[in-house]
Structure formats: structure tokens, C-alpha cells
Specification:
By secondary structure, the chain is α+β, with helices and mostly antiparallel strands. The protein has 7 helices and 19 strands. It has 3 domains: 5-64 and 207-229, Pseudouridine synthase (2-Layer Sandwich); 66-206, Pseudouridine synthase (2-Layer Sandwich), CATH 3.30.2350; 237-289, Archaeosine Trna-guanine Transglycosylase, Chain: A, domain 4 (Roll), CATH 2.30.130.
């Protein structure tokens, strides 16, 4: 059996998230590999993969805040809100020249904080049981419902780059799970009246995991740098040490005594036993149990 744990991968452009999963399945020698949130083929950056029983940890990562670096091009809108989609509208050189730097910076500021965002139509969100992008490809025209997201940071990096036909700006974004960076580009362009879409996107952080610690798969040969489940859990959730008797009870589905305020990693002998939650006053019960290692309890 492959070593259970998390694998941080720096996805290259052109690969789908499923392509990465397929490659890691071969390298790890197991079918049991999953990911905590996809990246579009155009995008690069951090994918967090779970291997073997550590796929159970992915649930607790998906909702984590994320950081992105992106390039927004103002001057044209596309069907996908990124460079890979068909152009819908293009602004004239005169319209583009009339948009000031100050107006662009002002629109960036309006998108910070808790906002209502309409996801990109070409997304995996389901509409009446069908993924939105399948309905777009079938020729349907519709708008998804807005939803609340939090953008805690949206800042311009460097200077704006202007040409007759477009304005490019690089931004860094800290945001809640479920935020569409493509939608940010679209909304800024629409607010300015000249359209906008994304030309580059790189995810640099998911929760406590950073792309600087990720491996690349191009030409890879050797042993995968798998982060052990116990160490991964400590990076995701608060941790609580338990004893041998408590470990036995948890693995039997019983409650144990203790005080926790939310999902917590239960650890015995430097091994992840379970993820637990409060079960009433001074009581804890398991949400997910891990049985990879014989702890002799």
C-alpha cells in the first residue's frame, strides 16, 4: 500500500487537475488519490492531493482560504471569463484610453470584503442537475445566482501596462473558498464598461499549505514527498493528544471525555487516530477514523 498522506503539487499550465491525479496514481501505485479543489487547465500552482486514507483529510482542506496571483486584461470580455474562451465584446481604443488608473484602482477596492459574486457561467456549478459549463456548450444563455464570498486582499502588483487595445494589471488575491478569480476580472471590466478577462492565474496557497513546498511532476523520477497524515492534520486543524484507552474507544465508535471547540485531530503515539467534533458537554466523538497503523491498543 502507498504511504498515506498529502502531496503538494505545483500544477503546470495545460494539465487538468485530473491529469495530475492520474499521474500521481501511477507514481504512487494506488488508485486512491483525490484532490482538494481543482485548477483550470490554463492555471498553474498548488494542488493538494490526498493519498490512500488521507483522502479523508481533503474534506477539511477544501473550504480553506486561498491566495492567487493573476493577470487581468481589460478591453475584452470572453465567454469563459479567461483567455481560452471566445471573445464576446471588444472595447474600442478610444474607450480604453478613457479609463484612468484611478478608476481601475477604485473598482479593485469595491470588490474587497464580503461581497455577492456571480460565478462564471463556464464552471462546474450544477444548474438543475447539470454542470453549468455543459449547458453553456449546449448553447444555453443563463446567469448563475450570486453567492457570498470574502475577498480579504485584492491588490495591484506593479504598474498597469497599457496598449491601444487593452490594459493589463497584475493582482494578488486572498479569498474564501468558492471565489472565482475569473469573475473578478469580468466584474472589473464590466464596471469600467470595457470588458475584462483573466490571462494568467497561479494559486500559491491553500490554508497553511504553500506552493513553495510543492513538487513538480515534469520529468519526475524517485520517491514522492508525501506529508504524513499526522503532520498534515496538524497543519489543518487543532490537535489533541489522547491515550491508548481513548484510542481504543474512538476506534470502537465510542465517545471520550474532553473539551474541544470544533473539528480536532486526535493523535496517539504520533499517529493520526481520528478527526473529532464536540458531542455535548466535556464529550468528544469521531467524525472520521483512521486505521492505517497497528498501534497495539
Amino acid at each position: 500500500m502507498a504511504t498515506p498522506g498529502l502531496l503538494l503539487v505545483d500544477k503546470p499550465a495545460g494539465m487538468t487537475s485530473h491529469d495530475v491525479v492520474s499521474k500521481v496514481r501511477k507514481l504512487a501505485g494506488t488508485r486512491k488519490v483525490g484532490h482538494a479543489g481543482t485548477l483550470d487547465p490554463m492555471a498553474t500552482g498548488l494542488l493538494v492531493l490526498g493519498i490512500e486514507s488521507a483522502t479523508k483529510l481533503l474534506t477539511f482542506i477544501v473550504g480553506a482560504d486561498k491566495t492567487y496571483e493573476a493577470t487581468i486584461r481589460l478591453g475584452a470580455s470572453t465567454i469563459t471569463d479567461d483567455r481560452e474562451g471566445e471573445i464576446l465584446n471588444e472595447a474600442t481604443a478610444t474607450q480604453i484610453s478613457q479609463v484612468t488608473d484611478e478608476q481601475i484602482i477604485a473598482e479593485l477596492s469595491k470588490l474587497r470584503g464580503v461581497i455577492q459574486q456571480v460565478p462564471s457561467a463556464v464552471s462546474a456549478i450544477k444548474v438543475n442537475g447539470e454542470k453549468a459549463y455543459d449547458r453553456v456548450r449546449a448553447g444555453e444563455v443563463f446567469e448563475l445566482k450570486s453567492r457570498e464570498v470574502t475577498i480579504s486582499k485584492l491588490e495591484l502588483v506593479g504598474n498597469l501596462r497599457r496598449s491601444e487595445n487593452f490594459i493589463d494589471l497584475d493582482v494578488i488575491v486572498d479569498c474564501s473558498s468558492g471565489t472565482y478569480i475569473r469573475a473578478i476580472a469580468r466584474d472589473i471590466g464590466n464596471a469600467l464598461g470595457i470588458g475584462g478577462h483573466l490571462t494568467e492565474l497561479r494559486r500559491t496557497r491553500i490554508g497553511s499549505f504553500a506552493v513553495e513546498n510543492a513538487m513538480t511532476l515534469e520529468g519526475f523520477e524517485g520517491k514522492l514527498a508525501i506529508l504524513k497524515s499526522v503532520d498534515a492534520a496538524r497543519g489543518i486543524l487543532p490537535a489533541m493528544e489522547i491515550d491508548a484507552e481513548q484510542t481504543l474507544f474512538i476506534r470502537q465508535g465510542k465517545k471520550i471525555s474532553g473539551e474541544i471547540t470544533g473539528n480536532t485531530a486526535l493523535i496517539f503515539a504520533n499517529t493520526l487516530v481520528a478527526i473529532a467534533e464536540p458531542a455535548g458537554p466535556a464529550s468528544i466523538k469521531s467524525v472520521v477514523v483512521f486505521n492505517d497503523e497497528d498501534l497495539n491498543v
